[in-house]
Design a protein that fits this description.
The protein has 554 residues and is an alpha/beta fold. Among the domains are: 111 residues, no CATH class; 122 residues, no CATH class; 129 residues, no CATH class. It is built from 10 helices and 25 strands. The strands form 5 sheets. A 7-stranded mixed beta sheet has the order 5-8-2-3-4-1-9.
């Protein structure tokens, strides 16, 4: 193609207009970090909004705990993780910082307990064996039913070194028992009802004034309904031995109670509304034995005092006061006093009687005393003392030498005038042992009156005479006796020689016996002849018959 020259008549094109585009100052590439920042911020906000409270828990040691691995579990559900482990200001405790989940923030409140779950062996058995594979974790226990608006109200806690005996989610009731001493009870000791384990001891502490021990027990549901207002608890630890008319009896709840102690209870319908179920945290008395728990109520106490002019070694506070085989009271105090008249010390024994144990008799006396404005116990005691009632010490155990007081009617007792006092004085008589000692003393006195010196002199003279007699017998009688024995020996030898089988005496005797035998045969023949021929006594003997001449018998 040839180029056309300008101006050749062809159409001319207009020159293009060129315009420049305005550049934006912000590039779209910057949206990526912005979006990433917004997403990160949203994640932070979301994490912050979903994060729970941070709490601190103090323990004696951090054994088994690891940062970022150890969990906090409530009812075996993971509700948090340990964030850090450190010390307090004086390094006496280990402080564990942990984070709770937001949905359980209200668990951080007063009354929540934390403890480290690890393998343990105690009186209640073996626990925490699952941590041998999974590792230790922090257990959480809180009281249910509280609504704190899903927010934490407490952030610092003191961890438990041992798991709580009973968690708050365990159904049942807690009761407080008041005992004089703890005995062999410990946390975890079983609680029995009709020899069935229905609970356990969950704590104990001294009373505020230190005069008793408060033992807290927990009875599982539904057995807690058997604890009524009339229930009585007793210490079922060890073995209870008793000896009575039926023989030796041994009582124990179980082998576990023998080793770690235990508590038992039973209903005793003596209290008002005794069959009504007891409320939680009700306080009961813890009796030392089952017999003491099931004993009849004591009723009104009546103090007495007894004076003993003898040794009371073996009598202790708490010794029973026996009346006709019934324990009527016990000894409360033993003191010494001095008698200026006799210049001797004597013992004062204070005791408490419960006259209501006498039954119907005391009821009748009390009714009369109320009508006449008198003291029932003093009135009854005065009548009994008038009829010979006396106090006496007797041995309760021959091996240990323990004593007890017996109130008994003493025949031919010296009259004593009873005057009502506070406490009432009861006359006494010597005990069986003292009576025996007095009898022994009387025997010794009589023995001392025997003239042993004179008896000894007479005995010495008798022995001298006896010695002389023996000498005479030895010198005079003995030789004569030997001669007599020798003569007797010779006589016996002669007799033996006469009685020998070849001696003349036996031979002659035998011949004489033969002659006597022949004479007897002749006499027998004569008797037979005279019997058949009696006329021979008058006529004499006839001629001898000729053989064969007489009649012949066929």
């Amino acid at each position: 193609m040839s180029e056309q020259a300008p101006g050749s008549g062809e159409e001319k094109f207009a020159s293009p207009e060129i315009s420049r585009k305005k550049k934006s100052r912000i590039s779209w590439i910057w949206l990526v970090p912005v979006v990433a920042a917004l997403m990160g911020l949203s994640l932070v906000v979301r994490t912050w909004m979903q994060a729970g409270p941070d709490i601190s828990i103090s323990f004696n040691t951090a054994e088994g705990l690891e940062v970022g691995k150890t969990q906090l579990r409530y009812k075996d559900v993971n509700i948090g993780t340990v964030k850090s482990i450190g010390f307090n200001s004086d390094r006496s405790k280990v402080v564990v910082q942990a984070e709770l989940s937001k949905q359980v923030s209200d668990l951080a409140r007063e009354g929540t307990n934390f403890w480290v779950v690890r393998p343990r062996l105690d009186v209640s058995g073996v626990s925490g064996l699952g941590t041998l594979l999974s590792g230790a974790y922090i257990g959480v226990d809180a009281e249910e039913g509280k609504d704190n608006g899903n927010r934490a109200t407490k952030l610092s806690f003191e961890g438990l070194e041992t798991p709580p005996a009973v968690t708050h989610d365990r159904a049942g009731k807690r009761f407080m028992l008041k005992a004089s001493d703890l005995g062999s009870l410990d946390i975890g000791s079983p609680v029995y009802f009709r020899r069935i384990n229905v609970g356990r001891v969950i704590g104990y502490a001294l009373d505020e004034n230190g005069s008793a021990v408060n033992v807290e027990v927990f009875v599982d549901a539904p057995n807690d309904k058997f604890v009524t207002n009339g229930t009585r608890f007793w210490n079922a630890s060890g073995v209870d031995f008793s000896v009575n008319a039926d023989g030796l009896k041994v009582r124990t709840q179980s082998l576990v109670s023998m080793a770690v102690g235990g508590v038992a209870f039973a209903p005793v319908q003596t209290a008002r509304d005794g069959d009504a179920a007891a409320k939680a945290d009700t306080e009961f008395d813890l009796y030392p034995t089952e017999a003491a728990a099931k004993a009849n109520p004591d009723g009104e106490a009546f103090p007495i005092r007894m004076r003993f002019d003898q040794s009371i070694r073996g009598l202790a506070v708490g010794a029973p006061i026996d009346f006709n085989g019934i324990t009527l009271g016990d000894v409360t105090q033993i003191t010494l006093d001095f008698d200026p008249a006799t210049k001797r010390f004597y013992s004062l024994v204070d005791a408490t009687l419960y006259p209501e144990r006498l039954g119907r008799v005391y009821e009748e006396v009390r009714e009369r005393a109320i009508k006449e404005g008198d003291v029932a116990g003093g009135r009854l005691l005065g009548v009994m003392i008038k009829h010979g009632l006396r106090a006496q010490l007797r041995t309760a155990n021959l091996l240990t030498g323990q004593l007890y007081v017996v109130l008994d009617n003493v025949p031919n007792a010296k009259p004593v005038e009873f005057v009502m006092s506070e406490p009432a004085m009861i006359p006494t008589v010597p005990g069986n042992l003292d009576q025996l000692q007095q009898q022994v003393t009387n025997i010794v006195t009589k023995i001392e009156k025997i003239p042993f010196d004179k008896i000894g002199e007479d005995l010495r003279a008798t022995l001298a005479s006896t010695s002389k007699l023996m000498n005479r017998l030895d010198k005079q009688v003995a030789p004569e006796a030997q001669k007599a024995l020798k003569a007797a020996k010779d006589s016996m030898a002669n007799i033996n020689s006469l009685l020998a089988s070849d001696a003349s005496l036996p031979v002659n005797t035998e011949r004489a016996m033969q002659e006597l035998s022949r004479a007897a045969r002749s006499l027998r023949a004569l008797a037979d002849f005279l019997q058949s021929n009696p006329e021979a006594l008058l006529r004499g003997r006839g001629d001898d018959p000729i053989p064969g001449a007489g009649p012949v018998r066929n």
